[in-house]
Amino acid sequence: MDNAKESFWHQMSAAGKMNEEIFTLCFGRQPTADRRGTEAGAMTLGGVDTRLHTSPIVYAEVNVNNYFYGIHVRNVYLRAGGGGDSALSTNPDLQVKRVDISEADLNRGTTIVDSGTTDTYFTRNIAGAFKKLWKEMTGDDYSNNPVSLNKDQLDALPTILFQIKGLQDENTKLVKESSERVPGLVGALDPKNPYDLLWAVPPSHYMEYDDDMKKYVPRFYTDEGSGSVLGANVMMGHDIVFDQANGRLGVAESHCDYADLVSSNGFDWNPHETYNKVDHTVAPDADSEKEAEETNEAEKVAEKSDEDDIRKANKGTSESMGGESTDGFCDNTTCKGSIVLVIVACIAGVVIRKMTKKATISYSTELELQTTAADEDFGEGYRDEAGSDDDEFQDEQVE
After folding, report:
1. What's the whole-number mean pLDDT along residues 350-370?
2. Strand order across the beta sheet in which 220-224 lies
3. 49 shares its domain with 100
């Protein structure tokens, strides 16, 4: 989805399938995949579907270099926990503090928005100031080591706020005469630049739950040699507008619930029949895991029952046909032929039974395979091994 001519959206545009050179990516708020399927969100080609939005679109300056979407980060803040997912806090009294780093150091190297990078990586210039402020606000040291958290502890972590240089002419249109605070605008947080974009990243987006370890892993890194990448986890909960036609990047807050949008517009489609809408921002409870184990055990019992039925059929048929039976084995031709017919019938019943079961889960299995493939492609996400040279940084991203 970058700006190369070979990218998917470029090919769709060249084929006349897009009204404008605009596409949007809206990633849902579920940071882990489920074996039964996960609602990923929505992609819109050729325009913007504002029905997905819960806030107005706030536009930022974008600079397309080497096919990537470059932005200018003016400030980074930490907001005390408990303020919700929006840039407009549910509690206006919560403390918001700026990370003490100069604008020049914050933007050393290129800063890009990249959906192909799983996590978010910032220049190491920010590390000292970010960790100092984190310690001040939480009392704990910040690291990328796994931690055990319950839901209340997760919600109590700070929300990371990015202030991105905005398009003043566009964003002033969003301010009403009553001076009502617009979600996504910096406003009074920076009186010199009130029309900048304010991008909120709540803890449920930068803390990823690892089902194997039963712990959360912080996925905001501060160790890049040069440049920074706002990856897919930061994009979650927003509809990101890549407006090539007008050279701008737009951000609107959203639940990215495409299934709900379809249903609310009169289409007879129950999304719960095709995927499992479960909140995976917290660890699954013991009852859910127990239920899954009981389902697997029931399937095993059913398969064993099928095998027992076949063995009994073999033995019973042999004896009824007058043949000598030893655990279902007989010698005469009539007996053997009957056994074959019975076995074929039993196997057919098992196959049909399993095919019916397979049909009900084929959609989920396909999603699981796609999710696995994506994980293999992206691995741990983008990592800069090129040192501080900007050109090498760009080459790493292209690769």
Report:
1. 43
2. 63-65, 68-71, 111-113, 228-230, 120-123, 220-224
3. yes
